[in-house]
Write a structure and sequence with these properties.
about 250 residues, alpha+beta, 5'-nucleotidase,  domain 2, five-stranded mixed beta sheet, four-stranded mixed beta sheet, 7 helices, about 35% helix, globular
């Protein structure tokens, strides 16, 4: 092997080693909890605080606007609750107006109701707290057998937010299921108002992703709630809900 060939081989080996990707492995990690409270004010960047202050004031002015009155405190919990009933009813009502024909059922997830709505003033900010996500109202067409499977899951979880149906939870099973006063028909197509997150089968509501048809309304759930509250206020009505036995637990 001559010197020239040896040099070429050396360059090839050097380039191969130099261009190889290094793999890094985390062998140890630590973390420190930093409380974001008054104790951190001493180390806050004052210039940045000054920059943010006018933005904070503008946002605060919009968030603090009162748009309605809650007749009583509404919380979300199973098997049914004032807040989940209210939300599911608004879903169903808004979808019915959008579609131009009656929607059978409204479904919301209790985990998606992120705050309590206290009695008294309802502000824009409170609705943002209740629905901090950019979810959209969607309408699904779901066959009755899949709806039955979904309601069985609801029963196993102790209930969810529903509108337009009634059921009894008996030892973790959904029984006596009726939609608009009629027994659930496993061969029928039902229209369901829900949000795009659940429509994708999330929160273990996999049956919703097995829909026959889907319509995206383009209506943000937060805007839907804001509009409903404002409209009721213009009519002179307080925002209220009721427990009507739509989901009960057998004793």
């Amino acid at each position: 092997m001559n010197v020239k060939n040896s040099f070429i081989i050396f360059l090839f080996i050097f380039a191969s080693v130099s261009c190889s990707h290094k793999t890094w492995v985390v062998t140890h990690a630590t973390s420190t909890k930093i409380a974001l409270d008054s104790s951190t004010e001493a180390i806050a960047d004052k210039n940045y605080e000054s920059y943010l202050q006018p933005l904070k004031e503008r946002v605060g002015a919009k968030m603090n606007v009162v748009i309605g009155q809650a007749a009583e405190t509404m919380k979300g919990h199973g098997p049914e609750s004032l807040l989940s009933n209210f939300s599911a009813d608004v879903y169903k009502r808004t979808a019915t107006v959008f579609l131009g024909e009656k929607v059978d059922i409204g479904i919301v997830n209790l985990g998606g109701l992120r705050t309590v709505v206290p009695a008294g003033n309802i502000t824009v900010g409170k609705v943002f707290e209740l629905m901090p996500f950019e979810n959209e109202l969607v309408i699904l067409w779901l066959k009755g057998d899949k709806l039955d499977e979904l309601l069985q899951y609801f029963a196993s979880m102790g209930g969810e937010g529903v509108s337009g149906l009634r059921m009894v939870i008996d030892h973790g099973k959904a029984t006596n299921i009726t939609i608009d006063g009629k027994p659930l028909d496993k061969d029928k197509l039902y229209t369901i108002a829900t949000n795009d997150y659940l429509a994708g089968g999330n929160d273990k509501m996999i049956q919703l992703a097995q829909h026959v048809k889907r319509v995206n309304t383009g209506i943000k759930v937060r805007d839907m709630l804001l509009d409903y509250i404002k409209n009721e206020t213009r009519k002179g009505n307080k925002i209220q809900s009721k427990l009507d036995g739509r989901i009960t637990i057998s004793k």
